[in-house]
């Protein structure tokens, strides 16, 4: 199935829709281009190639916003292009991505022969990338995963946020930490951008940050109260999902349970403070 194309400006395109409303991006600068998260099917990749040919541009870089298979396994289709990712990408891919990749290759026939492509260029907390006559800022936003990065086009007031935020979907911090997730949301909130391209969901603005934070604050409050009362993880997992989502109900509830597990573990091991009990009553 072809992805839906959104042209945000003369030089910025978003391709949406191949897996839970996932977004890929292409930014042009003169005759160069960078791809942000590769598609997962040959048909969708052909859309990218056709656009490059139409613009008479070469694909100079491929940026992985994080290591998860739905954002990185499609690198295989562009395996001759330098891949940029955070320095934690390799560690996370070795320990977490390979089992998922094996499973999803059975689902996506175009990926049967795909191999995991290791990054050519690794970045730390921030990195300025020159693309033609433009400069893009790669920003570390851990939380969803330890290696999550975003791509900001300051001149355009635009950010490809990866899965630091999701619109219409339940975000998950299974691989990350609650404290990092909140810190990254605060960092996003302070940026001067008017267009946010989330990892999944519709293109939006920075109001998505408050929506994401509200859900995880709810989890923090509710799980804190249950930890105060010495409730078990099994009891915590009965907390209902109250965040609206376009995801299938079973998928949304599965992600919600993963978040409950992560928040419970972070509170019990002390890596994130419990919510004050007085605050819980207000």
Could you explain how this protein is built, in words?
This protein is α/β, with parallel strands linked by helices. It contains 8 helices and 12 strands. The protein has helices at 42-55, 69-72, 89-107, 178-189, 207-228, 233-236, 249-268, 277-281, and strands at residues 4-7, 12-16, 23-29, 32-36, 58-63, 83-86, 121-123, 126-131, 134-140, 149-153, 158-162, 195-198. Strands 1-2-3-4-5-6-7 form a 7-stranded mixed sheet, covered by helices on one side. A 5-stranded mixed sheet has the order 8-9-10-11-12, with no helix packed on it. Helix 4 packs antiparallel against helix 5 and helix 5 crosses helix 7. The chain is globular, with a radius of gyration of 19 Å. The N and C termini lie far apart (49 Å).
- How much helix is in the residues? 25-40%
Strand order of the largest sheet: 1-2-3-4-5-6-7
Strand content: 15-25%
Q: Tell me, rounded to a whole number, the average pLDDT.
A: 92
SSE string: EEEEHEHEHEEEEEHEHHHH
Oligomer: single chain
What general form does the structure show?
globular
Largest sheet, described in full? Answer: 7 strands, mixed
């Amino acid at each position: 199935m072809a992805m839906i194309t959104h042209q945000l400006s003369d030089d910025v395109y978003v391709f949406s829709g191949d897996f839970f409303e996932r977004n890929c991006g292409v930014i042009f600068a003169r005759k160069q281009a960078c791809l942000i998260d590769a598609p997962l099917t040959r048909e969708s990749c052909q859309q990218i190639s056709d656009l490059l040919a139409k613009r008479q541009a070469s694909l100079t870089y491929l940026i992985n916003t994080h290591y998860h298979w739905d954002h990185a396994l499609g690198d295989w289709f562009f395996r001759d292009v330098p891949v940029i990712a955070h320095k934690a990408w390799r560690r996370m891919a070795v320990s977490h991505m390979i089992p998922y990749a094996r499973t999803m290759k059975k689902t996506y026939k175009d990926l049967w022969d795909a191999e995991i492509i290791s990054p050519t260029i690794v970045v730390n907390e921030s990195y300025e990338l020159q693309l033609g006559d433009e400069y893009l800022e790669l920003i570390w936003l851990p939380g969803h995963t330890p290696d999550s990065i975003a791509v900001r086009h300051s001149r355009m007031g635009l950010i490809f946020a990866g899965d630091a935020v999701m619109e219409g979907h339940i975000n998950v911090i299974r691989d990350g930490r609650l404290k990092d997730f909140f810190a990254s949301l605060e960092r996003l909130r302070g940026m001067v951008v008017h267009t946010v391209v989330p990892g999944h969901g519709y293109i939006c603005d920075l109001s998505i940050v408050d929506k994401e934070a509200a859900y995880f604050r709810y989890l923090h409050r509710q799980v804190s109260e249950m930890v105060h009362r010495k409730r078990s993880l099994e009891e915590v997992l009965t907390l209902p999902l109250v965040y609206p989502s376009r995801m299938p109900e079973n998928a949304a509830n599965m992600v919600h349970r993963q978040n409950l597990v992560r928040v419970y573990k972070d509170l019990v091991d002390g890596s994130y403070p419990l919510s004050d009990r007085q605050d819980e009553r207000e």
